[in-house]
What we know:
Layout: E1 14-20, E2 28-33, E3 37-42, H1 48-65, H2 70-73, E4 84-88, E5 93-96, H3 109-112, H4 115-126, E6 128-130, E7 137-138, H5 143-153, E8 159-167, H6 174-183, E9 189-192, E10 196-205, H7 211-224, E11 228-233, E12 241-246, E13 249-251, E14 256-258, E15 283-287, H8 289-292, H9 314-326, H10 340-348, H11 360-369, H12 375-382, E16 385-389, H13 400-403, E17 405-408, E18 423-425, H14 426-430, H15 434-442, H16 452-470, H17 487-501, E19 507-511, H18 519-534, E20 538-542, H19 546-550, E21 554-559, E22 568-573, H20 575-580, H21 585-590, E23 610-616, E24 624-629, E25 633-638, H22 644-659, E26 672-674, E27 681-685, H23 698-701, H24 704-713, H25 716-721, E28 745-748, E29 756-759, E30 777-779, E31 782-787, H26 789-793, H27 797-803, H28 808-819, H29 836-852, H30 855-861, E32 866-871, H31 879-894, E33 898-902, H32 906-911, E34 914-919, E35 928-933, H33 935-941, H34 945-956, E36 972-978, E37 986-991, E38 995-1000, H35 1006-1023, H36 1028-1031, E39 1042-1046, E40 1051-1054, H37 1067-1070, H38 1073-1084, E41 1086-1087, H39 1101-1111, ...
Parallel strand pairs: 3-20, 3-21, 5-19, 19-20, 25-33, 25-34, 27-32, 32-33, 38-53, 38-54, 40-52, 52-53, 58-64, 58-65, 60-63, 63-64
Antiparallel strand pairs: 1-2, 1-4, 6-7, 6-17, 8-10, 8-11, 9-10, 11-12, 13-14, 15-16, 17-18, 21-22, 23-24, 23-26, 28-29, 30-31, 34-35, 36-37, 36-39, 41-50, 42-45, 42-46, 43-44, 43-45, 46-47, 48-49, 50-51, 54-55, 56-57, 56-59, 61-62, 65-66
Helix pairs in contact: 4-16, 5-7, 10-11, 15-16, 16-17, 27-28, 28-29, 29-31, 33-34, 38-47, 39-41, 45-47, 47-48, 60-61
Amino acid sequence: MTSRKKIGSSAIESIILRGARQNNLKNLSLELPVNKLIVITGVSGSGKSTLAFDTIYAEGQRRYVETFSAYARQFLDRMDKPAVDSIEGIPPAIAIDQTNPVRTSRSTVGTMTELNDYLKLVYARLSHLHCPGCQRQVKRDSTQSIIADLQASLAPETRLHVCLPVTVPHNFSEQEVLQWLTQQGYTRIQARTDTQVHAVQDRLRLRPENLERLAEAIETALHHGNGHVLIYCDPDQPEQQIRPYSAHLHCPSCDREFNDAGPGTFSFNSPIGACETCRGFGRIIDVDFDLVIPDQNKTLREGAVRIWQSASYLECQHDMEKFARKRNIPLDIPWRELTDEQRLWVLEGEGGWSDNLWYGVRRFFAWLESRAYKMHIRVLLSRYRAYTECQSCHGARLKPEALWWRLHRSPPVAGDNASTADSYAINELMTMSLDDCSAFFDTLHLPGKLDAATTLLMGEIRSRLTYLLDVGLGYLTLDRQSRTLSGGEVQRINLTTALGTSLVNTLFVLDEPSIGLHTRDMQRMVSILQRLRDAGNSLIVVEHDPQVMLAADLIIDIGPGPGKQGGEVRFMGTPAALLKHRDSLTAKYLRNELQVSTPAIPDPDRNLRSICITGATEHNLRNLDVEVPLGQLVCLTGVSGSGKSTLMRDILYRGLCRELGITTEAPGAHHSITGHEHISNIMFVDQSPLGKTTRSIPATYVGAFDVIRKRFVNQPLARERGYKPGIFSFNSGNGRCPVCAGNGFEHVEMQFLSDVYLRCSECNGKRYRREILEVRLLDPKDSRRALSIADVLELTVAEALAFFADDREIENCLQPLLDVGLHYLQLGQAVPTLSGGESQRLKLAGHLTTVQRPARKRETAKQPGTLFLFDEPTTGLHFHDIHVLLNAFRKLLQAGHSLLIIEHNLDVIRAADWLIDIGPEGGIGGGRLVGTGTPEDFVTEGTGHTADALRDYRTDLPRVRTGKAGKKRMAAIQIHRAREHNLKNISVSIPWNSFTVVTGVSGSGKSTLAFDIVFAEGQRRYLESLNAYARQFVQPATRPDVDAIHGIPPTVAIEQRTSRGGRKSTVATLTEIYHFLRLVFVKLGTQYCPRCDVAIQPQSRDMILSRLVRDWQGQTISVLAPSVAGRKGLYKELAAWAAAKGYTQLRVDGSYLPSNDWPALDRYREHNIEILIGQCTVNKKHEQQLAALIDEALAVGNGLLMVSATPNADAKTAEALFSTRRACPGCGDSFDDLDPRLFSFNSKHGWCHTCFGTGEQLPDFSEDLTGEEENFLEANPDSGSVRTCKSCQGTRLNPVALAVRFQDRNIAELTALSVDSAAVAIGKIRLDTKQQAIARDILPELNGRLHFLQKTGLGYLSLDRAAPTLSGGEAQRIRLASQLGSNLQGVCYILDEPTIGLHARDNALLIKTLRELQQHGNTVVVVEHDDATMTEADYLIDVGPGAGVNGGEIVATGTLAQIKKSKRSLTGQFLANPLRHPLPALRDETQRSKIDKATLNIRGAILNNLRSVDVDIPLHRLVAVTGVSGGGKSTLIRGILYDNLRDVVIAANKRGARPSRKKPDWHGCASIDGWQSINSILQVDQTPIGKTPRSCPASYIGIWDTIRKLFADTVDARLRGYQPGRFSFNVAGGRCDTCSGNGMQKIEMNFLPDVRVDCEACGGWRFNNETLSVRYKGQHIGQVLAMNIDTAVEFFEPVPSVYHPLRLLQDVGLGYLTLGQQSPTLSGGEAQRIKLVAELAKAKPHLSLRGSKPPHKLYVLDEPTVGLHMADVEKLLRVLHRLVDAGNTVIVVEHNLDVIAEADWIIDMGPEGGQGGGKVVVQGSPARVARSKRSHTGRYLAPLLC
C-alpha cells in the first residue's frame, strides 16, 4: 500500500515551467505559486502575453479540453501546444482577454452576456399582452374568470343572457344558419349583426345558487362558440351591457384576436421575431441626404447637390434649375437658409420624369438603384448611402407583435385591464442601462409560486446583471452593439462569466483588465481579482497599471527590451521587493526615478483657435457645450460610461467629416460644430487590428517597401534583366517563390491538431525565387557586404536606418518607426505577430509618415493642420512605451497638428496641455461637463474624480497596496441541501486533494451525489466560460437541485459504460491512437500502387494524353474536373461559379445537373461533384481538342481530372481518374491525394468493400447498416459465429489504404502490434528535419497514450483488438488511461466503480494509479463498494441507510476507522465484521444429493489468447470462473461455451426434434461433451436494459402485459370496450395526449439544459382521465405504476405470473423501486439485477408438474455483482444457490471474492493477461484454489476462508 497523505493537504503549491521557448522567450524556467494574484509586466513586445497566454494558458486549456470527446474538441478551439520542455502542476485554465470575435451588428451586450436569450424566455413565459389599439390587457378567459369578473362588476340579481356568437359563413344565408341552430335546440336569438347571430344558451339571474348553472352555460357556449361567449347584462334595458369573453387571446374592445408568443417572437436574430423591413438590424442602408448635400453653405446653382456635378449627371442639375425657376425656388441662397418646404421639393420632387414633372433627388437615386447591376453604379451609390433608423420598428429590431407584450413590475390588478404603467416591452428593457435593468429585476414581483424553469431563469438574469455591475459596466445598455465596445469593456464582460462560474482550483489568465477604467474604478477591479483569488483560484494578469501591480502577490518583470531584446525575467518577487530593485525599468518608473513625461508648460504665444461643440445630446450627453483647443495635446477623460466616446467619435469625428466632405455615418445629435475651417483633415486612430495575414509587414505600412523595391530596380543587374518594382513583391508577380507563394513557409493542415508551418524547402523561407535574390544592394559603409531583398526584410528598423543612412526618402519612411519606439521590429515581420501595444504604435507611425511629408509645404503656406483623434492610445503600453509615445505626439504638435485623445492614464493626463473631464458618473449619471483647464488647474481648483486622482497621484504611487487575503474557506467541496433524485436535503463536504470513496447500498443515491451533483456542476461551470456556439455541441448537464455548492473545481468523469462499442471500435480508436496514426500515414506515409507495389510519382500532362489515346481510342468521353470529394454541403456557390465560367453542367454523385438551375442538395449527405469541362471523341483528328480539354480540366481540378464514357457508349471502362501529382509509373493508375478518411474503416473511402470495415463476414450486413454493427449483431443471436473477411484478411481496409507505408509498415500492420510492441516500434522511428516538424505534436501524443495503457497494465492488448471482445476490466482501464493522459492537476476526478471487472491483483494496481493521480494535486472521488478501495481511501461518505426512497441520507462520513465505529453505517458494520465463509444455510444439500453428478467437457479451446485449453465444468453447481483481467475468462465461457451451445441446445430441445447424428461444427475449440442434459441456456451480460424513459422494470421483466390484461378484464373496461392496449403508455388511445404518455413535459431552454416538469394534464400519471377511471382492486393504472415493488408483491400475490417475478426483485434487494421507474434513472447495480431477475423469472418453478423432472438450465452470468453493496452480494448468493438447488447449473464470470469463496467450483484462468494468459492455472473447490501458490486468486482468497 502507498502511504496516505493528510486529508485536504495541497499537493499543488506551484506551477513549474521548464525551458519555455515560445516566440521570444529565452528558455525560461519559473515556479509560480498557485492561489495567488500574479502580475506580469514589462515593456511592450517583451514577451508578457507569450508567457501568460501562449504558454501557461495554452497548456492548461489544452489539457482540460483533451478530457472531452474527439467530437466535442473540434468545437472547443484547443490551443496549440507551446514550445516548452515541461509544465507541471497546471490546473484547467480560462482566458479572459480583450478579443471580441463577433463584429456583426446583430451582436450586442445582450447577446454577448446571453441575457437576451434569458429575456426572450422570460417574456415568452411571464409577459402580458396589451392590445395595440386600446392598450387593454389581453388574456384568455376561463369559466371561473368570467364568473369572477361578473360577480366583481355587476350587482346581485342582474339578469344575464349567456349567448354564443355564430358567424354566418359567406356561402350560407342567415336563414339557413337559424334553421341549423333550431335543429340544435337554440330557439332564442338575442341579436343579429351583418355577420353574426347571437344565440341564447341560457337566461338566468346572478345569484349564488345559480353559479353552477351559469358555469355550465358559459362552458357550453365557449365550446360551441369556438371559444367565444357574449353575456348580455340587463338585456333590453337602457343600461344594457354586452360583455364579450373569449378563451383565446382576444381584445373585446377592438374585437381583435392575437397569437401566442414563443421565445422566437422576442429574438431579432430569428425570422419569427425580426422586423421584416430591417431584418432585425434596427437600421437600414438608405440614401443619406447629408452625403448628397455635404456642404450646406453652397447654393443650388453652385452645386449643393454633389452627385449632379459630374459630367454624367449634369443633365439633372439643369433639370433642377429649370423646374426651380418655374416654382420660384431660389437658386442663389445657401442650402441651409432654404425653407423646409423648399428643401423637401428638391429632395422629394413632384412626380415622375415621364410625367414631365420634377422627379427630385430621391427618384433619381431610385433610378440609379435599377441600374445597380453595373459595378461603377454600385460604387457610386455606396458613396451616398448610410445607416438610418428603420422607420418600421424605429430601432426596436422586432416586429410590432413582439412589442405588444409587456413585463409588469407587479402582477396586474384584477379588473385593471387598461394599465400599462410600470411595465416594459422587451425593446424598452434593452435600452435601459444595466443599473436600471438590474433594479427592475430586483423589484420584480411575480405571481404565485414559480416553476423550476422560471426560477432558474430569474436567478440567472439577476446574477448576471449583478456581475456586470460589479465590474463597473452599469452604464452599458443591452442593445449596445458589441463592435462599438472597447477592448476593456469586452474583457470585463468576459470577466463576469468567470465570476459567474464560481469555480475553484482554476487558472484565470487576464489581459490588462484595467483598460478603459478610470482610476476611480480601478480599486473595484482589484477587489474583483482578489475575490477570484480568495475563492481558491490562481490569477495571472498581464498589466501595466500601478494600482493592479502593487496589489499583486507576485510580480514578474519581463525584459529588458522588446522583441529579440526581451524574453528574460528581470525581476520576480513581491511588489515591496520590486520597489527596492535597482535594475528594473518598471521599478524606476514606480519610484519616480524616471518619469513618463513632465507636465506641459503653457505657451503664451500659442494659437488659440478651437473647435466648439454646442448642444450635444447623443446617448447620455446632457445638452453639452464644449470647446476643444487646437494645436495642443487635449485629453478627454472621465469615468467609464460618462460619454467620452460618444462625444469624440459619434459627434466630433462624424460631424467634422460631414463638414469636410468625408463620407461617414450620420453624426450624433448636437446643435452645431464650429471651427472646422481651422483644420485641413481629421484622422481617427482606434484600436482596430492592422492586418490578419503574414503578407502585412511594417515596411509596407509606413511606405518604405515601395521605396526599397525601387532601389533594387535601379541596380545594374535588375536593369539588365528588365525587372520592374513588382518583381520584388512577395504578394504578387513572378518574383515570389512559386512553391510557398511568397509566404516563406508551407502550411500543413493537421486536422484536429494544431496546424504546422514549415520553412519553405524551395526558398528556405526567403519568399523569393533564387534569381531575384541575385540582385543585391551594396552597403555604402562596407563594400564587402551586399544584401538581397530578403536580407533587407530581415533587418530591424534600427539596422535598416544605418544601412540606408544616406537615403533621405527611406529614412523619412522609417524614422516614424524609430520615433514610436519600434526600432527593434524587422522590416518583414508579420503584423499579426505584433503585440497590441506594438500594433497601436505602428498605426501611429503610419500617420506620422503621412503628415510629415507635406509638413514643410504647409509651414510655408500656413495651411491648417490635421486633427488627430486617439481612443486610449496607451492600451497595452508600459511606462517607458508611453514615454516614447508622448514624444511622438509632441512631434505631431510641432508639425502644426492637433491631438484629442481619450485617456485614463494619469501620466498622459498630467502631460496634456488641456483637459476636458466628462461625468461626474457613468450612464445616466454622466454626460455633463465636470471641468476644463490645464492639469495644474485641476490639481489646484478642480472637482470630480479626475481632479482627486491627480492630487493623490504623487502620494499614492509608491505605496504598496497588497490586498488582504479573504476569509480562508474550508479546503473542501461543500454541498448544501441537495435534493436531486432521492437525496433528502443532504449537506456534505468532500475534502480537496484527497482520495474519497462514496459508498452505500445499491440505489442509495451514491451516483446521484457524485455524478449528478459534483461532476455535473463542476463541468457545467467550466463550460459556461465557453462561448454559446461551443456549448451547443457540449451540452452541459442540468443544474442540480441543490441550494449551494462551494469550492468546486473543474471536474472530469470516468464513468462506467456497460456498452463497449461495436466491432468497428478498437483499442486504437477508443484511445484515439488510431486518429494520430492516420495523420502520420497521411503526412509522412509513402503511397504505393496496390497492383504494382511501386511508389507513386508525379506524371506530366503529356503522359496523361498518351494514356488516354491508348486506352480510350475511338470512344466519346466526358472530361471532368473533380471539385468535391466526399464532402457534405449544398454547394450553391460552386454551381454559381461554374455557371459564371461557362460550365453548364456538373456531375453530382454520378448524375448530371445544370449549373444555372441548381437544385437543393441533401446537405447532410457526402457528395462527389465534378465539373464537366467538355466532351470529345478520342482519335487523331481531335487530339488537339483533347489536349486543350486536359489542360483546362487540370487547371480547374487542381491537378486532377476524370474521364467518363458518355452514356450509351460501348466502353470497356466506365471512368478513370488521372493526376499530375500521384500516379503509378508502372500501370499509370492515378490516385487522389491522401486523406485521413482513406485509413478509416468507418468511412466508405477507406473500408474494405467486402466487409465494410468490420473485418468479418457478417451475413446480411451491408453498407447501409454501417454504424449499427452492435445493434445488428444483437438483433441476430442466431447468426452463428463470424469469420474473417477473405478480401482484407481482417485488416478492415481497402487495398489502396493498405498500400500506404510508413517505416516499411502499413497502418494495419502497425495496429496489429500489442501496446508494448507499438511503443517500441514508435520509439525507434527516425525522421528528418522536415518530418520532425510535421510529427512534432503527433509522436508525443502517441507515446503518451501508449505509456498510460502500459501504466494501467494493458500493454498486452493489440491495438486492433475489437471493443466487444474486451473484458469489462480492460474496457474500464482503457477509459481511465485515456483520461490520465491529460496530466491535469487541481481538478476533481470522479470515477464510477473503477474496480468493475478487475481481479484483486489488478485492483491493487488501479488503486496505486488513483493514489498517484491524487498525489499530483487532484481530488479523486470514487463511487465504490470494493473493500480494498475503501481501505485505501482518505475519506469515506456512506449514503443510505436503505435504497430508493429509503436512502438519500448521509449515514456516516470520516476515515475508515470512524466509519467502522458508526452504528448506523451498514458499510461500516461489514468492514468491521466481513463475511465469514462458508456462509451458513446457503445450500440445500438434501436436494442436491438427489441429482446425479455430471460434467461439461471442453477440449482444445484456442479462441483469442486461449492456449489449447482443456477444462471440465461440473454441472448442477455454482461455478466461478475467475482470473486476472485479460486471462481468458470471458473468451472461455462466453466465446466458446455459450456461443457454441446456444444454437445446439435450442436445436436439440425443439419439440419433436430427433437426435442429430451430425457432429456439431464447434467454433474455437476441438469439442464439447456432456451438454446433452441441458434443456436451455440463458445469458445475463452487461448490456443496458433500456435507454428511453418508456422502459421500466415492469415492462422489462415481462409483467406489464399481464397487468394490462388484468385491467382490461375489469367490468368497467369491458363495458367500455377497452382492450389491453388501452392501458399502454406507448401508443395513442389511453395515454395522455399532452405528454404522449411520458408523465412529464420537456421545456426547451435553448442553450440551457432543458427542464422537465410533471404534465399538467394528467398530473404525471401518464394516462388520460377516461383510462384512469378504470380501477383494479381500487387502484387505477397510474397508481399501479407508481407502486414500489414491496407494495406490489402484496397487491399481486393472487396473480402468480406477476407475483413470482416481483418476489425475485424483492429477493435481490430491489423492493424499493417503483414498477414504472424510468430505466435511465436506474443505477448500474439496479439495472444488472433487473436483468438477472428477467432471466430467473423464466424458470417459473411454480408451474413445474408434480413428479416431473425439472428442466436443467445453464445460466451464464457476467459479473452479476456489478454495482452491488456488500450487503446485497449475500442476497445475490442466496438466489444463485437457490437456482442450483433446483437442479440448474450457474456459471459466473466473477472477481468478487465473496462470490468466489461461496462457489462450489472455481476455474482460475491466467496466470497473466493477454499473451501471458489463456491457461487454466488451477481449478477445484475454494479451499484447493486458496492453497495454490501459482494462483493470484488463491493469494487473495485465502484470508477470507475460515
